[in-house]
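[job 0412] stage=fold_complex status=start
inputs:
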Amino acid sequence: MSVLVNFKICDNAKECGGIAVCPTGALSWDEVNETIKIDNSKCVSCGLCEKECPIGAFTVVKTKEEYDKAQKEIDEDPRTTKDLFVDRFGAVAISDFFKINLDEITTKVKKDCLTLIEIYNPDVAECLLKSIPIKDLTRNLAKDTLFFKAESDSPVDEYEIKELPSLLVFKSGKLLGHIDGYYSIDELEIVLSKLTTILKDSN
Ligand code: SF4
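[job 0412] stage=fold_complex status=done
writing structure:
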C-alpha cells in the first residue's frame, strides 16, 4: 500500500490538497525541509490524494509491481512544473526570467511603459494552482507592460508596503500605487479593478 509523488510536476506546496484529504497522516508537510513528506507505512491506498490532485502528481499503488512501474514512469517523465504552470502572482517564481533583486527595482522601472513589480516572501508564498497567472493579471494593460518579481522577507518601508505580496505599479520611474496582500485566482477581478483605479487616479 503506497503512494508516489511525482515531484517533477508537483509544486510541493504546504497547501497541497492531498495532505488535506489524507485520512491517515501518510501525507504531511515537513516544516524543516519544506516538502511533502510521505510515510507509506500509514498509506491505505484509499486513492483520495490521487483524486484531489488536479495535475496528477500522485499515483496510488497496491503491489510492488505497480510501485516499480509507477516509479519508472516518474523517472522517465520529461515534464517539469514550468510545463504545467505559467508564472503566477503570489507564488514563488518558477521562471528566472521574472526574478530581480530588490536593489534592481529603481533601474528596471525607468522605462516609459508600465512596469509591475511583485514583491513576495518565498516563505509564505501560496500554492501555484491557487495564484493568479501573470498573463491574466496584465490582460487589461498595454502590451509593452513589464513584469518582475523580487523576493523580500519583510514589507519594504521605502514603498510603504503594509503586507506581502505587494504589487507595485510604476510608470517612467514613478510609483503610481501598490496593491498589498494575497489574492487568489477567485479574486482576479478584484485585483484588476484595483489596478484600474491606480491607473485612473494617476492620470
Ligand atoms: S492513498 Fe489515501 S492514505 Fe494513501 S497517501 Fe493518499 S490519501 Fe493518504
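[job 0412] summary: Residues 3, 21-22, 24, 26-27, 43-49, 60 surround iron/sulfur cluster (CB under 6 Å).
[job 0412] exit 0
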